[in-house]
Amino acid sequence: MGGDRAPDEIVDGVCRAARSLDCTMLLVGDEAALRAILSRHDAPRNIDVVHAAERVAMGENPVAAVRRGAATSMGKVIDLVRDGSAEAAFSAGNSGAFLALATIRLRPLPGVARAAFATAWPARHGPMLLLDAGANVDCKPEWIEQFAIMGSAYSRAVLGVADPKVGLLSIGEEEGKGNALVDASTPLLARAPIRFIGNVEGGDLLLGGVDVVVCDGFVGNVALKLAEGTGEYMFDALRRATTASLGARIGAMFLRRSLRELRARMDYREYGGAPLLGVRGVCLVGHGRTDARAVESACAAALRAVKQDLVATIGRAIASDPRPEAPA
Amino acid sequence: MGGDRAPDEIVDGVCRAARSLDCTMLLVGDEAALRAILSRHDAPRNIDVVHAAERVAMGENPVAAVRRGAATSMGKVIDLVRDGSAEAAFSAGNSGAFLALATIRLRPLPGVARAAFATAWPARHGPMLLLDAGANVDCKPEWIEQFAIMGSAYSRAVLGVADPKVGLLSIGEEEGKGNALVDASTPLLARAPIRFIGNVEGGDLLLGGVDVVVCDGFVGNVALKLAEGTGEYMFDALRRATTASLGARIGAMFLRRSLRELRARMDYREYGGAPLLGVRGVCLVGHGRTDARAVESACAAALRAVKQDLVATIGRAIASDPRPEAPA
Prior knowledge:
2 copies of one chain form a homodimer. By secondary structure, the first copy, chain A, is α/β, with parallel strands linked by helices. Chain A has 12 helices and 10 strands. Chain A has an 8-stranded mixed β-sheet, sandwiched between helices. The interface between A and B is large, with 60 and 60 residues.
């Protein structure tokens, strides 16, 4: 029931996912409304509806959402995972509420100080995973180290990167070029059970050949929204450039397919959902603008995470980290 | 003598600036080398050469550069401003060394806690000034407030924005959505002598209609390099899209001029230099890749800053700020 285009686009995406993926989809929300939409979609049989009378509003305070618990569709989705009735949760709704519900009702994995949102970007060399993308604004170095461990596990299990290279986002490649958090995180990353390649810069996020980049959730969220905004800005400028003259319009006709492919390649929907790493369950949140295509991608990513046993893998990776974790 | 393409492109740019601007240009560096290049350029008469035997290397430690003082071309440029022999300084060299030299040899303006690098971006609505772009990685709220005051003055004097709207870079528009620095900076910005519009997000930097955006130098530098990298990534993808098929190549031929204009619009060289705000002199640094066009733009910006009496304006704005400044 969450996201700008819910429930229609969500239901549409779930129908697509049910057709293409070998799993059962549980649609959680207002049962009558959902069944009405499903009936219009010639829905496949591997979709069940789970009723939840309430919904978390987009701007709702996460504390209020937690208080309402499983009465809301979002709380119910989390509880289905907690109770073993579902193996993964996806929501395109209020991500702050989702974070709070998942953290409180699923609990973090043993030893995990903070769960983090990760986002996959279509970098030049392949998928680049950035985390934290906004769950924790002010971070401790130990959390950054755990983000690196969890991100490596996700990159390997879900994005298919065999031996992910991990970079620390900073403002120069040399050690010592960074802020206090970067300075304190570097030695922890250097001896963590990951392939740490040192500092990377903002320009490396799309161009640098790095597979996982860690930073605090403030910097990560600014970066995510800036990259989206820059893409939108450029497509907008390109649209104006391709309609500026008759010649340009003719050129654009020839280019239509190439430009459409370019746009698709840069599309957030290809990666569908941002995983919340570090909790006891596979959890993904979608962009507020999530449409059917994005839902389908997110469900595919969730299924890969389940099949690769992501949560247990992250649990083992955190447990194998030699450093005794300070209490969160 | 600084930057990847020095001294040829720098000299070329200075020749262009000398022809288009009503001022005298002082070229500082190896006199014989500079005169040899000038002679190939049919140099206009309003260029003088000032000899400096040494040069600051790109990777050189700023402390070492400060120790060498006016023996280097960069140190000499700063001293020319300090001694009143020049009214503005520009360098495309080592920006850390430039910051150190300018801060130590020119000194900050009275009441200014920290000088900051500002960069102008070609946002959808016009020039957007982001600061700090990398001079100070870990910042205090009082510094953020001063960045806003100094950035407003530059936006007005040099970028021609009548009443600049100032935003605080954060991860949500509502107050309280940010990190500890954002929370502590908000009340200071709210009563500073500027037009503060509240929080802006990463996506607003190019799309948001905001004229000045303040943040710490770590976030600002990540953002600057990410925006540059995203632009490069998109042009690269566009180049591949426009050569992917015969049809696409034909289309691209028709579009060549529009695409060239688009590229020019997004070009860092249009704004040429990043001003260092808060020191007792007009100072700009160029991108390492600075070419003749960028040098010309930077010189034009420097001349506008001088004519608008930017330094005194910033000094007055800082002095008018009701808050007694804590010692830096």
